[in-house]
Amino acid sequence: MVVKHFLNNFRDTDLLKTLKELEIERLVICGMMTHMHLDATT
Q1: What is d(CA 34, CA 16) in angstroms, rounded to the nearest whole number?
Q2: How much is the pTM?
Q3: Percent helix, strand and coil across the chain, each rounded to 5?
Q4: CA 31 and chain centroid, separation
Q5: Fewer Cβ within 10 Å of end Cβ, the chain: N or C?
Q6: What is the tens place of the pLDDT at every residue in 1-42?
Q7: How many H-runs (helices) and E-runs (strands) does the chain carry?
Q8: How wide is the angle at C-alpha 12 spanned by C-alphas 3 and 28, nearest 5°?
Q9: Contact criterion met (CB below 8 Å) for 4 and 13
Q10: Which residues form the Isochorismatase-like domain (predicted)?
């Protein structure tokens, strides 16, 4: 679980570090409010 406080899921979180540690190469990104949260993350 990654707790976030900003629109961008990578900002001030350990998400990128966690993905690299787990050797994740692909993500499926989906959710609500695509025009804000998903756009900021991708």
Answers
A1: 20
A2: 0.70
A3: 35, 0, 65
A4: 11
A5: N
A6: 888 888 888 999 999 999 999 999 998 887 776 677 778 887
A7: 2, 0
A8: 60
A9: yes
A10: 2-41
Tokens representing 23 are 């050797």
Instruction: Give the tokens for residue 4.
Output: 């976030």
Token pair recorded at residue 35: 């025009």
| Closest to 42 (Cα-Cα) out of 27, 32, 24, 25 | 27
How far apart CA 42 and CA 38 sit, in angstroms, is 6
Instruction: For residue 16, give the H/E element and its range.
Output: helix 15-21
